[in-house]
Amino acid sequence: MDRHQTEKDDETSAPGRPTLKTLAFMTGLGVTTVSRALKDAPEIGAETRRRVQLVAKQIGYRPNRAGVRLRTGKTNVISLVLNTEREIMSFVSDIIYGVSEVIADTPYHLIVTPYSRSQDPLDPIRYLVETGSADGVIISRAQPNDPRARYMLERGIPFATHGRTDMGLVHPYHDFDNYAFATEAVRHLAGIGRRRLALLAPPVGLTYHGHTVNGFTDALSEVGASEVPFNTVSIDHSIEQIRMRTAQVMRRQDRPDGFVSSAAAATLAVVAGIEDAGLKLGRDVDVVSKQSSELLHLFRRELLVVNENFRLAGSELARAVLGWIGGAEPGSLQSLSAPGEVLAYRRSG
Amino acid sequence: MDRHQTEKDDETSAPGRPTLKTLAFMTGLGVTTVSRALKDAPEIGAETRRRVQLVAKQIGYRPNRAGVRLRTGKTNVISLVLNTEREIMSFVSDIIYGVSEVIADTPYHLIVTPYSRSQDPLDPIRYLVETGSADGVIISRAQPNDPRARYMLERGIPFATHGRTDMGLVHPYHDFDNYAFATEAVRHLAGIGRRRLALLAPPVGLTYHGHTVNGFTDALSEVGASEVPFNTVSIDHSIEQIRMRTAQVMRRQDRPDGFVSSAAAATLAVVAGIEDAGLKLGRDVDVVSKQSSELLHLFRRELLVVNENFRLAGSELARAVLGWIGGAEPGSLQSLSAPGEVLAYRRSG
DNA sequence: GTGACAATCTGTAACGTTTCAGTATATTGC
DNA sequence: GCAATATACTGAAACGTTACAGATTGTCAC
């Protein structure tokens, strides 16, 4: 009766995709043996192993994800959690591709889990953890005291953050060295004679706001330049708001003669504001901006740029999560990307 | 013995997330009844139904995806298939958010399936279909004779394409009316006195290349303007190539006095090329460009723009796939987005 | 020859869900 | 009062996988 049951289905039911049962029938072995043979278990004879693997390859066997997931809890999914309104456009695109590159030859799938302004950023994380929807999570916009990181750390679910936290807790991250970016930017501006600098910073809640501001102010005192306060807007504000505030500050007599901007789109707004005030980039004022795709030099050739590679960030983050899932020490999965030189495409005037 | 088995686990094993078994124990019903009650099956008493649903809500029951998927084959996954190298940056970002909006209050997850230049575009589709990894697929960069669409149509897997095909086969799609875009662009340029126009078109293989070219040439003869051939580059070419070719053509004496460009990034390159040749936008030549984020007017205020909304495209595509999955007629799930007016931010000179 | 032991292989159960084929109980027709 | 039928519920089996606890050999020491 058992025997009967075991054999009745498979030789006839060819149409579906092959399963362990199919392989078992074809090789004349038990499904357990096949299962173990496929993962190179030592208690299976070497020849049997090869034989099973050969047949599996030939007929294109692919383990059923639902079966594995149900049995083991392993989802083979990495979730990328993104803010629907606030992420930089090229960030989304590049980080996805970066992650994809790394997981391409693994069984992992990438799922994108979005959340919107109105929601608690913890919501999507809770969902993922409670439903066990992913083996690992990547979050962006890290905060010094990040409830999401804390939450995942408590539940023991592997994750990596884009940006660092500052809670005395150790976890994988990848970050761009925004302190170095800001200091280099200030030094460069000082080097071309700029002395009154303004910073268009990242939004206040995020960790790299602090890094950027610190780099900026440290370098200011190093080179003996002064700061023109410009903290009523951040790169998260709308193009229009940034443009207006820039125009305002540029119309004052104590206006800045140099800007440091943390994002390319925001830089477009800053330049527009400068020109609204009737001033000329490269003559009256210089702007150093981060950019993630090499387009700013087309916009205004006088712009000074520092490149940040989000695709690299994506790869690093993916590597970090996979590493943690694979059992590596979280502390060994942290990386910091150094900014390159400040690039001047061409000076005008 | 059965009895014993059935009851032994659940009252004690609280820690894990609730399953149908948990609910069955709590309500004193069988798992079958609970399962049916949760999906409002008519053969379950009205009061029982309400009771089960109440308890389920209270304890936060969520069906286990792996269980459902294994049993029914339903994955509750939509896959967005993207070309790692060729997609427009903002397209990736916006379409993901557009899709997300629509699937937010459904059980669907969005997985991103990338493929690179080197691969056959059919590869990722085959993978998805063979492994049954998604209930529905969204593809971009539709071709007149699209093997991916044909393949999925043959296997009966629901999908939607960004862009139309032209194979006499009916399937859901969303498209921007690029024919209308091109005609409007040409008319506008003619309206401001431009008579020798060049088109920076989409790459030749894609369906909307044809739409754009047809709109362009039809409108040319309508307004009695002439075409300056510019088909050695497309918007898929690199910034540098487009820039160089533009500069070349602008140095000839029979140079164009108007451009129509199908993508914003490419437009930056065109403008750079124009200026390389020592000419001035808005005086010597005008450019009408599509854009998907409202940034071009910051770049050069003389640019003429037509907006294309990729977030909308994402939503429409998601709605289309879900509709097909839900049993709607594929032919009823097609939409075309009309371009708005050509927007002139400010004329110079 | 026998007991011990390693080397290979195997069946059963379980993960959580839905479908199928029932089983009780109440209701109806007559 | 009894069969037929509707109503409300139920257990068993199956989806494909892996872990567990064997089972069957063959080999070796003595």
UniProtKB/TrEMBL annotation, chains A, B:
InterPro entries recorded: HTH_LacI, LacI/GalR-like_sensor, Lambda_DNA-bd_dom_sf, Peripla_BP_I
Lineage: superkingdom: Bacteria
Record keywords: DNA-binding, Transcription, Transcription regulation
Gene3D superfamilies: 3.40.50.2300, lambda repressor-like DNA-binding domains (1.10.260.40)
Record-annotated HTH lacI-type domain positions: 18-72
One Gene Ontology term of the molecular function aspect: transcription cis-regulatory region binding
SMART domains in the cross-refs: HTH_LACI
UniProt protein name: LacI family transcriptional regulator
Organism: Mesorhizobium helmanticense
